[in-house]
């Protein structure tokens, strides 16, 4: 079957448990690119089974790292995929149909189906949670920020129906470990910006987010997974604040 004129770009760092499934799901693409950040496991070795377009670069600022990765693509259209994600056959077929006709949009948002273990989180705002993943590389750019960089584009956004499957958490341990890592990065960002953040404001955000995720967006329908997802989404602010406060205290003590 003819390949689709899309470059699938994957950024990796010690992803030997995920990379084979990820790249296999993208074999329909005209090009697969892997940008690796000094993996110490078998990530690169396994990726070579699917592509010879493997590059190396040390991660510095996430936004800049992503912009570099996408610049490596030979095709104008890029699909950004994380190493712990897979493209469903339905999405691949939808993409095939899209590229058989003129395209008016410059980016496309794709639904993300996130899993904890073998169960996907259906409620609480976790699905469809569509994100821009398919785009014309010459007409978009990521903010050069280290935490949750936004994608910047000027034009229309289309919406696809096929899913990307996100196997981000093998269990609750992974879920809370990720929460811990993300809040550390968030706290560092606040520290660098010298942002004014109060415990009261952080608590209000925690409470409002938990109530929204668990009740308004019906996270309770996912059982214990929905409860933990809502708790984690809300508690993010409290964890980031405490780490930020600790950084400020350490700075004062060193002066």
CATH superfamily of the largest domain: Spore Coat Polysaccharide Biosynthesis Protein SpsA, Chain A
Strand order of the largest sheet: 3-2-1-4-9-6-12
- Mass-distribution shape: globular
Strand content: 15-25%
Global Rg: 19 Å
Helix tally equals 7
CATH class of the largest domain: Alpha Beta
List keywords for this structure.
2 domains; Spore Coat Polysaccharide Biosynthesis Protein SpsA, Chain A; single chain; alpha/beta; 255 residues; 7-stranded mixed β-sheet; 24% strand; 4-stranded mixed β-sheet
Structural commentary:
With 255 residues, this protein is of the alpha/beta class. It has helices at 19-24, 43-47, 62-71, 89-98, 172-193, 199-216, 223-254; strands at residues 4-12, 29-36, 54-56, 77-82, 85-87, 107-110, 112-116, 119-120, 131-136, 140-142, 151-153, 157-159, 164-169. Helix 5 runs parallel beside helix 7 and helix 6 (199-216) runs antiparallel to helix 7 (223-254).
Offer a concise description of the structure:
By secondary structure, the protein is of the alpha/beta class. Helices cover 40% and strands 24% of the residues.
Task: Summarize the SSE layout with pairings.
Elements: E1 4-12, H1 19-24, E2 29-36, H2 43-47, E3 54-56, H3 62-71, E4 77-82, E5 85-87, H4 89-98, E6 107-110, E7 112-116, E8 119-120, E9 131-136, E10 140-142, E11 151-153, E12 157-159, E13 164-169, H5 172-193, H6 199-216, H7 223-254
Parallel strand pairs: 1-2, 1-4, 2-3, 6-12, 7-13
Antiparallel strand pairs: 4-9, 5-13, 6-9, 7-8, 10-11
């Amino acid at each position: 079957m003819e390949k689709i004129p899309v470059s699938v770009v994957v950024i990796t760092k010690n992803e030997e448990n995920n990379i084979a499934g990820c790249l296999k799901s993208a074999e329909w693409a005209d090009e697969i690119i892997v940008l690796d950040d000094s993996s110490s496991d078998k990530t690169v070795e396994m990726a070579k089974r699917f592509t010879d377009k493997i590059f190396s670069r040390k991660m510095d600022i996430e936004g800049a790292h992503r912009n570099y990765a996408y610049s490596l693509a030979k095709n104008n259209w890029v699909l950004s995929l994380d190493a712990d994600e897979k493209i469903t056959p339905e999405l691949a077929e939808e993409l095939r149909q899209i590229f058989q006709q003129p395209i008016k949009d410059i980016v496309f948002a794709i639904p993300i189906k996130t899993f904890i273990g073998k169960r996907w989180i259906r409620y609480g705002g976790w699905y469809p949670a569509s994100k821009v993943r398919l785009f014309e590389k010459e007409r978009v750019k990521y903010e050069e920020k280290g935490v949750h960089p936004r994608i910047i584009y000027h034009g229309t956004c289309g919406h696809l129906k096929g899913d990307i499957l996100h196997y981000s958490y093998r269990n609750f341990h992974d879920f809370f470990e990720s929460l811990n890592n993300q809040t550390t990065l968030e706290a560092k960002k606040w520290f660098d910006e010298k942002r004014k953040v109060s415990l009261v404001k952080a608590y209000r955000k925690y409470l409002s987010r938990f109530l929204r995720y668990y009740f308004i967006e019906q996270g309770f329908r996912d059982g214990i997974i929905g409860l933990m997802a809502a708790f984690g989404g809300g508690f993010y602010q409290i964890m980031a604040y405490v780490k930020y406060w600790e950084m400020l205290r350490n700075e004062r003590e060193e002066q």
